[in-house]
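Hi D.,

Good news: the full-assembly prediction came through. Inputs first.
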Amino acid sequence: MISVHLPQDLANQYGLDNPLQVAEAPTVVDLLDGLARTHPALAARLMLPNGSIRPHLNLFTTHARSPVQGAGNADLHPNDEVWVIRAVSGG
Amino acid sequence: MATDAIILVGTAKGLFRFRSQDRHSWQQEGPDFPEAPVYSAIQDPRSGMLWAGVNSIFYGPLIHRSHDLGASWEPSGEGLAYSKDDPEEVTRVWSLLPGPITEPSVLYAGVEASGLFRTEDGGASWHEMPGARSHATHDLWGPGFGGKCMHTVAQDPLLAERMYFACSTGGFYRSDDRAATWSAKNQGIRADFLPEGQQHPVAGQCVHKFTLSAKPGRMYLQNHGGVYRSDDSGDSWIDIGHGLPSDFGFPIVAHINRPDTAYIIPLGGDSGGRWPPEAVLSVYRTDDAGGSWKPLRRGLPVNAFTGVLRDAFRADSVDPDSLYFGTTSGSLFASTDQGESWQEVSSHLPRIHCVSTATSQA
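Then the structure:
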């Protein structure tokens, strides 16, 4: 399993455990695809319709930070952790 | 049990609620969604439920609903989005509208980039009504400073199949088949920001707001320059802005019972600043359907370099004498005498985007 750490307000909104345990996936792209199937409402909050991460969210894995607004094609490994962190965009 | 009046105030940083038993003493509640701009918040009179369009910079736009007058909120559906191949993106929810009374599970949402969504299952899912964006004049729609927004959607009170929307820029449109197809209805509305000789296009006007009145077929409209009335459901418009210090403004409000009475808040406009003429905050009221206008200033500030946005002025949904508006500098004003005098309910709120009313026993 992979642990996905969500912004707490988002986890609260959908009544989800945080971190959320999701099935293993070879890359971040595959992980997000899986989320879109298992948690479509949550995935719509994290991603634009074209599959990219929303521009004011940042995504980190155990080993690296995904490119800003990138599709996040970093490799994942069993028991990795993923963090979704809000950008410093509060205004 | 007494019925409380509630003012819903959407701001750049969340939704504030003000509650009162007498419409004079108000208690603040909230804010809800404190990090998100709220451009639309309404009470559905059919159910009493509150709905809010919450435009999170982090998570995108999402409609929320509350069964308990805002004590708690839940997401409505998975969000609103155009398809992944669409060149446009849904970035904000601008307007919310309950459907006909005969269809209690139907609501509409106008969004940016200008488009229309409908739910037929009480908000469990939302889908686009493609007739709006596929209109032949869609190429003439562009963004104003606020964005390319479908800011007003209205349901005809007598004809369930008749609806209206306005977008900025774009103009005023009417549907006679329940939002399946639309006709541009801008005859008489001048677009004085276009080149001379091209100021009366079929579409492309910058309608800031329109409102239905208590008289079927009559509506009032505030354009980007120009105040108008239609008595034929939008087929034609006549200029009623004569005698005003400025015919530029954003909101326009109709009296809930008297069709000859409407209210506007003039601003300087393109050359006079986006604050009131002479910096004196004033509401103007007509009681003869736009034949003449009366300034109403008692209780309102002078030296006021502030504005009032298109959705930030509303009539009370129940009390015909009460009105409310909020400013871009965060002041909320209320009147209980048809605008003759005003009380500042709150100050130093975030920039106010929208104001509407609810009751505790809708």
